[in-house]
Amino acid sequence: MSAPAPSAPPPAPVASIPQNAPLARRVQSKTILVGLDLGTNKCCLIAGAPDSTDIVVGKVMPSAVGYVKPGIITGIVPGNSDVIFGDDAVRCALHVDLVAPLRDGVIHDTRAARDILKHLRNLVDPTGQADVRAVVGVPANAGPEAREHIRRAVVGAFARVLLIPEPFLAAIGVRDDSRLGQPQYVDPVSNSLIIDIGAGTTDLCLVQGYFPTADDQISFNFAGDSVDQLLHSAIIQLYPDCNLDPHSVRQIKEAHAYCGAIRKPIDVKIILGGKSRTLELGEVIGNACNQLVDRVFDSARRLISRVPNHSVVQLLQNIVLTGGGSQIRGIDTELQARFVADGYENPKVRIAGPDYQRYCAIGALKAARAARENQWQYVVN
């Protein structure tokens, strides 16, 4: 990779390293590096060799594990498996106990998390013979307990890991290495505010060319799932007989979400009890999404207040939105308008791009390729 290695803090050991661990690694035939964004709603894995820029495996799938219910007839579940993952698990929701490994951006069910991680590892190393190392994104300012839960979950899936804040990885993933040095290119790693709006958490990070400190990051548990909950509650108030399931509410949000001035009417067709109905949801959708913008704006102002005066004007030109929440219509325009109204000097807010589901994992693979040998943490039983 053409960019210099990110300077990570010295990693804490996951466990004591057996004396024969280095020898065991030397006899293995190859090393595979993995960049992993283990999200509340989606997980993304990008994998490749250490000495290449190629991607050999890329996978985005729902963060869902399905444990097949007893008595299911042969041929109903793909591969007649006892455990299925991702889209297969969601499609077979009738026939499985569906478990979400994460909640609010952190491990909620260790068993399900471990199972989905082993499944992802098998995608990149079906033989189980390679030395597979993973850089895993974590929420900004994730605490010791959240990090330890991830370390426990990766046992049996990866040989070594590095845990790095997700918005920092997203900045590295958004970075176009081929354009570094071009006069008109604005490098997101040099001096930017990255805002990563996921399902469970919203993470903000000042990215200024070095590994972020705790003061450079803010994370809060108000994100896509919170918008879903607000929308669901508002629909129940308007239409008490329409108790939609969470998946249907998420589909409505993803199809119609917007920020800014209230738009009416937004007529949404639903199927309830086998019958078609049309709901007018323009105001409730706008109100729910605007509450997310309120929280993002307040946190962004707090971080910007910590930026040195000599660099803050440049940073205001480089506010980048990523994650699933970046796809809400008008969120960049509304956030920029709020900065302008609050007196900030010529702010520019932009959406990272259409590959928002993969930026964190792409950055994680770049970080894995740049990591020094002594930065990797061994994972042992």
The gist of it:
This protein is α+β, with helices and mostly antiparallel strands and 381 residues long. It has three domains: 1-57 and 111-180 and 357-381, ATPase, nucleotide binding domain (Nucleotidyltransferase, domain 5), CATH 3.30.420; 181-222 and 292-351, ATPase, nucleotide binding domain (Nucleotidyltransferase, domain 5); 224-287, Nucleotidyltransferase, domain 5. Helices cover 33% and strands 23% of the residues.
Would you give an account of this structure?
With 381 residues, this protein is α+β, with helices and mostly antiparallel strands. It has three domains: 1-57 and 111-180 and 357-381, ATPase, nucleotide binding domain (Nucleotidyltransferase, domain 5); 181-222 and 292-351, ATPase, nucleotide binding domain (Nucleotidyltransferase, domain 5, 2-Layer Sandwich), CATH 3.30.420.40; 224-287, ATPase, nucleotide binding domain (Nucleotidyltransferase, domain 5, 2-Layer Sandwich). The protein is 33% helix and 23% strand. The chain has helices at residues 21-26, 86-91, 110-124, 144-153, 166-174, 224-238, 246-256, 282-304, 309-316, 331-341, 359-370; strands at 31-38, 42-48, 57-62, 65-68, 83-85, 96-99, 102-103, 106-107, 131-138, 160-165, 192-197, 202-207, 217-220, 267-272, 275-280, 319-322, 349-351, 377-378. The strands form five sheets. The chain has a six-stranded mixed β-sheet with strand order 3-2-1-9-10-18. The protein has a five-stranded mixed β-sheet with strand order 13-12-11-16-17, sandwiched between helices. Strand 9 (131-138), helix 4 (144-153) and strand 10 (160-165) form a beta-alpha-beta unit. The longest helix is centred in the C-terminal third of the chain and has 23 residues, at 282-304. The radius of gyration is 22 Å and the shape is flat.
